[in-house]
Amino acid sequence: MFRGESHIAPLVVFRIVFGGVMLASAIRFVANGWVKQLYVMPHFHFKYYGFEWVTAFDAVFMYALFALMGISALGIMLGLAYRWSALIFFLAFTYIELIDKTYYLNHYYFISIVSFLMIFLPAHRYFSLDVLRKPAIKITHIPRWITGVLQLQLALVYFFAGAAKLNYDWLFRAQPLQIWLPANSDLPLIGRLFDYAWVAYFLSWFGAFYDLTIPFWLSWRKTRWLAYAAVIAFHGMTAVLFQIGMFPYIMILATLIFFSPGFHQQIVEWLRYTGRMLLGLKPRVVQDLARVKYSLQGWPKKAIGTILIAHFAIQLLVPLRHVLYSGDLFWNEQGFRFSWRVMLIEKAGTAFFYVEDPSTGGEAQVDPGDHLTKFQEKEMAAHPDMVLQFAHFLKNKYKEKGIENPRVRVKDYVSLNGRGSQLMINPEVDLASREQGFHQKDWLLPLDDSPKHLASVDQDS
Amino acid sequence: MKVIKTISAFGLVAILLLIGFGCDKNDDGSDDGSGSDFNRKALLENTAGNIVIPNYQDLVNQLSTLKEKTDAFTNSPGKKKLDEAQQAFKDAYVTWQHCSTFDFGPANNTLRANVNTFPVDIATINNNITTGNYDFAGLYANDEKGFPALDYLLFGKEDDQAVIDSFTNTPDAQNRKTYLNDVVKDLQDNVESVHNDWQASGGNYIEEFVNNTGTGEGSSLSFLVNELSKDWEIIKDNELGIPVGEKSIDDEKFPEKVQALYSEYSVKLALEHAKAIENIFLGRARSGADGKGFDEYLRSLDAQKSGKPLAKQIREQFGTCKQKIQAIPSPLSESVNDNESKVKDAFDDVLRNLAFIKTDMASALGVQITYQDNDGD
To answer: Do A184 and B35 touch (CB under 8 A)?
Structure first.
């Protein structure tokens, strides 16, 4: 995976595809009105710990940021001022994601990471506007480790996503698919199947097998095409079934990186040919006249090497950090994010807050819906760290109203993977007095996982 | 290598088989709802055909009666005519509680606010009457009209004679008559237009409603579930919580903010509201005829909670809520002080049921509440 050298085409195709999909995503996001809905309209944003300074400012700022992101994505796609484009895209995209953790998605995190890696890869030095401007930078061959970096990142995502599926709910209760599939039973042709439990079990096991092994099948020349057909079928199916936006398309296109340099050279030549035709130029096939190798020497080599090693060390450790916390991971979500736990849990909650004035004993029942959007309200109720943040928001709000040291309690009824709702947070604890941070949260109630909370097969009359 | 090939081929072929099997299955839509195979369309048809449209139809009829009675009263104000108008008002208000949930589709998220925003703004209403200058279509007119305004106009004096006097022996008596008639007319217009939009012979929203069988945001099911919980929150907060001081940190009570303050019909209306939402959950018409509802749907999914079927638990919680509301002595505006614990008891159980609806039911059905992408985490 990491030795030897090969043609640069796979990296170039990856650059074009990544930039193109990101441009489309940015346009889609704006066109759906989500910039306004998600960033401009809400009065309150759930911050990541340590990133409280990241704010949405106002509508002008947000649209400018999206414009910047779109333009830099275009720059990546065309290979124009590439390093700057990649850097700006990474910063703009990541900034937007950091504004509100309500909208955290694993695939957004994936995009942040990939755009970060792209900054360090010479993806613009062939078939790009930069080469057109400065032909001297053109290279034809790169060391294998460069595409290896992208392949490894993809493999890690799949592997951790697969490993996360090896849990009791997924394998032996077929949850959450047993909830999500019947919700799609009105789909044409395949919809009817989703009413059967065995379909949920089959797809659960197949999904786990797929995630754990697909990078291997894609790496082997002999299984590659078959594996890629499975990639299309698998992600295509998730696109139809679930509301996951661009993710399936990103994965279908990103996994092309596993194909051979020869295959990608054909894509590049086809792009060159059609591109010239569309521009009204005479189509021609360009042969690389000389083999020019990418050379990375001196301090840049050391710097990039260090960054990549550190990056992958972090990538290996972060998804495992949950072992440092006690309690059920899916329930308490301590160490849940940034770990490729995708489509794993159906979790919903309703949180009723109680704000007390300790000097009088008077208490108000407060509904978060008065201050949050529906989406924020739903996500908050299922995530303890967000409940705590909102409790602090209420504390400050009532302080402003002249209440000294308001106490904030919550009754948060949460349901996980089809278990009946239970209180997730100790309703007696004053959350206003609890700090945010990475320490073990002592105010969480354990998940009562006794069989009485699990669906039984008996029907009542 | 051969093994590997075989395994990956197996996965793919299995998927293709699944799809192929799906094609083979008879997809004629006839389905008896047995086993886990629940027909969402049947639920939507029952809800629209046996609950939504008949309830709106009742309301339209009762509003016509109300119009007759208020016309008669304004033509020659007297005790008997006032009694009749008051009774017609109460009947229509009760029926409104059975329509309140359906604020989606033709109601366009505005009908409920147009028809039943309380408390009303007495000062503005009196000013409207004096000046004769008002516009019910205005953006901020919701607390000057609707049932709560009628409540004030028909009951808002110390006794019936004083009400009659206000329509006869005051300088603005004529204006007051006009205002009363205008409020009734506005109610009629709003409700009739929504009713008409639902009907097959009118705007035919019913067809769109019953065929929109998905579970995503914008599906009929998500409209129902969302509005069901929103409307239940109105019982919790507006009809009980705010008046009894549950929402105030200094425990200040707001007896003047109860629904139907002047007619002292608050408890009855809250009870009817709870029944109305229970009916939607059960798929039960107001006449009592039971059809496909959320309870059957939850049963078909085998949704459980604490070892009991979720449908049964929610049904029991609806029962508890009704009991607790019924136990509040009327009028509510006095009970918030004199029987505070009874009102708070009812509030707590109504709150508990909101979690059942919003969390347990919505989650078991896999209903989406937003358009945004999510990856289930």
So the answer is: no
